[in-house]
UniProtKB/TrEMBL annotation:
This is C2H2-type domain-containing protein. The lineage of its organism: Eukaryota, Fungi, Dikarya, Ascomycota, Saccharomycotina. Coiled coil: none annotated. Keywords: Metal-binding, Nucleus, Repeat, Repressor, Transcription, Transcription regulation, Zinc, Zinc-finger. GO terms for molecular function: DNA-binding transcription factor activity, RNA polymerase II-specific; RNA polymerase II cis-regulatory region sequence-specific DNA binding; zinc ion binding.
Amino acid sequence: MDPSEQHLQQYPPLYPPVPPVPPLPPSSQQQKFIYRRPSRQCPICGKIVTRSSSLQTHMLVHTGDRPFKCKWLNCGKTFNVKSNMNRHYKLHLKQQQQQSKP
């Protein structure tokens, strides 16, 4: 009797054995079970995005529309994406903090 068998006799397992995992279906059948998020495609450049809101934001690149304006006094810089405007605005705040330090 080898040492592992002796060990199992002295110390039986605390839990029942785990059942084997069933085999995966053939790859052709696996394709049926994969969820694919619907995609949207830009009619101008063909870029593919997964959300309609992302397509709307992307379309601003083509229209040239810049609906987000920096609210900092005398800045007036405009952006086509709100997050870019927010990042820009934070630069103003950082500069102001640095100028106010002694």
